[in-house]
Amino acid sequence: MVGVEVDVEGEWQAESAVVEVVVSGRSRDGEFVAFVSEHGATLRRIATLLSGDPHRAEELLQATLERTYRAWDRARDGDPLAYARRILANLRIDSWRRTRRELLLNADQMPDRGQDDRSSDVVLRDELTRALRSLPVKQRRVVVLRHLLDMSEAEVAAELGIPRGTVKSAGARGLAGLRQALMDPADRTETTR
């Protein structure tokens, strides 16, 4: 600490100079690497669910991490994960605005991935991912943030910059769309009669 006193003529004089150095143990880069190690998989999952395509998800994730790194001083002051999620959502919105068209592939158009995994968890996850891809972008974002990431309506509204009522209506429509997409084909014909 530096003690300073002013004499009568208004000149500054330093009494003593003691400098305290606090070592945080991590550099800016080290903090960011730790953040990516801890939350990278979560951000990748969110990107995949928002984009509906693993390749687009990788691009979104890389752009998100790059922007988060550039603004790391601001991001680490608050909640870095929330900051990165917001960037991710905004980048997805930006890409949607640029293209204005979403190319969704049917099951028969999907590239062959080789050996099929027969586990029921993978099958269920695949069905859910396909059903999510069938939703409009706004509904998909709300459903992912609200129900898969367990965020409150207020948090989703703040994250996406939309009113809470829009979160409620988009969430309700999105869940109805998921129910319809995940419904057994035999059940669909009975409910439409």
Explain this structure.
By secondary structure, this protein is mainly alpha-helical. Helix content is 66%, strand content 6%. It has 9 helices and 2 strands; from the N terminus they run ββααααααααα. It has helices at residues 28-51, 54-70, 72-77, 80-99, 120-133, 137-148, 153-160, 164-182, 185-192, and strands at residues 2-6, 12-17. The protein has a two-stranded antiparallel ribbon with strand order 1-2. Strand 1 (2-6) and strand 2 (12-17) form a beta hairpin. Helix 1 runs antiparallel to helix 2 (54-70), helix 1 crosses helix 4 (80-99) and helix 6 (137-148) packs across helix 7. The chain is globular. Residues 1-23 have low confidence and may be disordered.
Can you give keywords for this protein?
193 residues, mainly alpha, 9 helices, 66% helix, 6% strand
**Estimated radius of gyration:** 24 Å
Strands of the biggest beta sheet: in what spatial order?
Answer: 1-2
Total strands: 2
Backbone structural class: mainly alpha
The averaged pLDDT comes out at: 78
Q: What pattern of helices and strands is seen along the backbone?
A: EEHHHHHHHHH
Gap between N and C termini, in Å?
A: 80 Å
**Principal-axes shape call:** globular
Helix content: 55-70%
Give start-end ranges of low-pLDDT stretches: 1-23
Please work out how many helical segments DSSP would assign: 9
Which range does the strand content fall in? 5-15%
Main sheet characteristics = 2 strands, antiparallel
